[in-house]
Design goal:
Radius of gyration: 17 Å
Structural class: mainly beta
Distance between the termini: 43 Å
Order of helices and strands: HEEEEEEEEE
Largest sheet: 8 strands, antiparallel, barrel
Number of helices: 1
Number of strands: 9
Helix content: 10-25%
Shape: globular
């Protein structure tokens, strides 16, 4: 019985990291300075949260080729509880700047993004869930 209890406990501990965080999925960004937007695939990357550019679109919604497809846009984010995430960075390809960032899951389909460089902060808008 003791071995069975230990086995179940070990299995539960092993399975816990596999539980999907509510932020995981694909998110549509707001338009950048050029009017383009992207779909960012957010997932677990070695114990932190990251996001890569999956697709890019022009202002009319037509998919466009981008040299940044597949590149990390979000990395090293850590959950703080209550749908809040921090400790990571977000790269803005249109400005080629990296921001120390925070994410706030407003509901299952809305993600507020913000970031700062030194004391200059920028609202990254609200991303919407694609899937």
């Amino acid at each position: 019985m003791k071995n069975l209890t230990l086995a179940i406990g070990a299995a539960l501990l092993w399975a816990m990291p596999a539980v999907a965080d509510p932020i995981f999925g694909t998110w549509k960004t707001i338009p950048d300075d050029n009017g383009n937007y992207g779909h960012i695939e957010v997932k677990n990357c070695g114990g932190t949260i990251c996001g890569t550019l999956a697709k890019s679109f022009d202002g009319a919604g037509k998919q466009i080729a981008s040299e940044h497809t597949g590149k990390k846009i979000v990395w090293d984010m850590k959950p703080n509880g209550g749908g809040k995430y921090s400790g990571g960075k977000i790269w803005s390809p249109d400005r080629d700047k990296v921001y120390t960032s925070k994410l706030n899951l407003l509901d299952n389909n809305s993600l507020n993004v913000s970031g700062c460089i030194a004391f200059i902060c920028r609202d990254g808008g609200t991303w919407t869930r694609v899937k």
